[in-house]
Each structure stands twice: as C-alpha cells, then as structure tokens.
Here is the input.
Amino acid sequence: MKKIITTPITYDQLKDLNAGDTVYLTGKLATCRDAGHRRVIKENIMPENFDFNGGAIFHAGPIVRTNPDGTFTMISIGPTTSRRMEPAEAEFIEKTGVKMIIGKGGMLGKTTEACKKFGAVHCAFPGGCAIIAADRVKDTYGVEWMDFGMPEALWEMDVEEFGPLIVSIDTKGNNLFENNKVAFSEKVTELKDKL
Amino acid sequence: MENKQQLTNILAEFIKTVSIHLPDDVEKRIRELASCEKEGLGKDMYGCILDNLALAKKYNRPLCQDTGVLQFFVKVGTKFPLIDCLEECIVEASSYATLNTPLRPNVVEPLGEHNTGNNVGYKAPYIEWELEPGGDGLSVMLYMAGGGCSLPGRSKVLMPLEGVEGVKKYVYETILDWGVNACPPLLVGIGLGTCAATSAMLSKKAILRPIGTHCDNEKGAKLEKELQEELDSIGIAPLGFGGKHSVLAVHVECAGHHPATLGVGITTGCWATRRGEVVIDKDLNARYTMHTVKEGV
Here is the structure.
C-alpha cells in the first residue's frame, strides 16, 4: 500500500519513516533552490503566498508554460542536486519549520542533524524523471521571485501522490546516501589496491 | 531568405526532437541495464526511467526539465549554400525551440547571473566549428549540457610517471565523489592529451560518439573496456541507489602528447544523455543519424 504524506505535515506523519522507505506527497509543494535559499537565509525574506511551516519544498527548476489567460501549465519538473543547498538547509529548516525537503541525491551531516533536531525528512525523487513529476502536479497556482528567472523562481503547486519519494534522511539521523557512499568507497579502495 | 527560414525550422525541430527523445543507442543501453535489476530500489528506479521516457513521447515534452545549455558541434562544407548565415540560423533556432518546445531557459549572463529567457546570450549557445574544404553539406551535432551531469567534469595534467594507474585513480575518485548526483548510469568520456584544455575537449568528443563504438586507438579501446568493468564494480547506478552497474559506457579519446605531461579530461553524461546529429545536404534535405523517431509513438 502507498504511504502518503499530506500537508500540513506533522511530526507524527514522519516519525516512523526510515531511510530507504518510499512515500508520496499530497498537498502543497513549492520549488526552492539556490537563489531561494539565499533569499530566505541571507535576506530574511519569506514568500507571501506559501507557508513553509509544516510544508514541503522541492529542489527543482521546472519548465512552465504561461497560458494566454495567465494560468500556468507545468511542462516538466524533475529534481536538482540537493547537495548544492547543503550549506543553507539546516538553517532553512530551523528558520522556516519546513518538514519535507525533496531533491536529487543526498545531503550531508548538517542537514541530517537538523532533520533529527527539528523532525524533518529529506527525500530523493528519481533524477531526470521530470514528466512523471509534472504528471502529479494538479495545479500550478502561483509563482513568486520571478526576478530569479524561471528555473530559480518559487513555483507554488498542488500535488497528488507526488512521487516516488525515497526517504534519504529520516528523523532519527539515518542517511541513505551517506551509507551507500561508504559501500561505494570500499569498492573504490579495492580497485585502487589492485593498481 | 526562404531557405534561411527553412534551415532555421529544420534546426528548431531537431532541437525539439533531441529534448524529447533519447538517442537510439542510449535508450537501448538503458533497457539492457534495466533488465539486469531484478528487485528493490534498483528495479523501481529503472521502472520510473522507462515510464518517464514513454510519457515524454506521449506528451511530446522534454523528458528532463533540465534541457541544458545548447552546445553545437558543426561540420560544414565550404560550399554549403547557407554557410554565411548558418550561425544566425543556429541562434534563431535555439531561441525559437526554447520558447516553443518549450525548453527551460537556462542561460544566465556571465558574472551577473541574469537569465536571458531564451537560451541565447553572450557567446551562447556554444558553437564549435569545423570546415570541410570543398564539401557542400552540413552536419550539426547537438549536446544538451545539463547542470547535474556537467558538475563532475574536470581535467588535470598528471605527471607522466603516474601512468595509466594515475589516470584510473583520477577517474575512480571523480565518479565516487560526483557520480551519484549526476544521474547515473553515466556515459563517461575520458580524454587523454597534453594539456588541461585539449584533454577536456577530447573527453567531450568521446561522449558524442554512439555507445557500442570503440576508440580507434588500440590502447585507448583497452582502457575503455577496463574502466567500464571497474566502474561498474562500484555499482552506483541507478541514480545512486546502488545496483549492478555504474555506467552506460566508458569512451576514451586520446592524442599523441608531450612526453613531460599526461593530461586527463573527464566529461560525464547522465542516463538521459541527450545528443543528436542532423545531416543536411545542399538542397536542405535533413536526416537524423542518432534518432529513429516514430511519429505518434
């Protein structure tokens, strides 16, 4: 059975999740990546129409079509590399109360600590699968921070069973990609020893 | 004038096709690798990848939202009738395809980061020219350079004493550190030359060549085979979740080099490596060499 997380997200919905689990998201989701993190952390500015508290953000820069009547069509939206946001994410979680961060690949120690301390999770959406993601966006109802350009703007969406989302950092301090990296490193050490 | 518009249209349609459909060689290889994963997240992730390819074709939309910065590798005959306006046609087609496919407008101006909105900017799209003396045809190769898969790229000049072992170590470490986030299985290009710049360019040329082809140089071909097996043993694919492979393929391009240097360049393409070639004759008949696109599939 599909495990579905709905916004506003509570700690109760997240506390039993383990790194490696697959979940889906229903509710509100906003894109927020490099420039958006800078704006929240450095400039202390929050979006006007999206509440990060108990919310979910997506490290993504979509392709969006603006229709003649001013509405938006989500064309293609896959995840971008979460690791780029590592220097800012812990502070972002603390400052905004965001509960779910979705992106590509894993994040590192500071974010893992923040997820544990503030009861949040990081999930990986399969990289490059941008049409699957767009298909789960039911409505792109707003955009803010268009001064950053289309990829970096904050796009506000209603999503339904958005996923698959693989829990990469859970609320207990487990980190799937860091564990994988240990296994990959061992293989590389073996390869180097053979040279 | 009419011909100029026709050439622009051909190029815009070509750009659109490359953004929606994987080249035949990449899709074939993805399917082979997918069939090797029988369970768990590895199987699930390949399932998503294959579903995504089908949906992109169905909706006629770019299969990945990061349609990259457009990079063109042009080989033009000196007698090609539209040689004088070719650059203008490529730039116009890039802008048109961006707004109409639509592609993601990625290009930001150097140092200011202002997004130009149409993938055209100062020295963008990137165009590399090669002349074919006396020829009357045109070949345009397009590579969509996405952000994630461009991040692992690097080049370094090793001491010759470090030898092939030094090259391998550099490749292992690069793939370990950066491969997971670059959407593996990766198409890995290795360039071996004299300096950082030429080695990097050779590594780029390496990933433009179709999977299944091999380096013309015997030692280069041997290195390809060895590196492919070795990188696969790390097992980072699909998408860093771990599985039986890491790469789509490893391609090596090498050139005679200075005895005092051993330049190594590394360029990676993601599982969704989007590249293609359109060959156009003097009468503007166009043919894709890397895509069999069936209408309405």
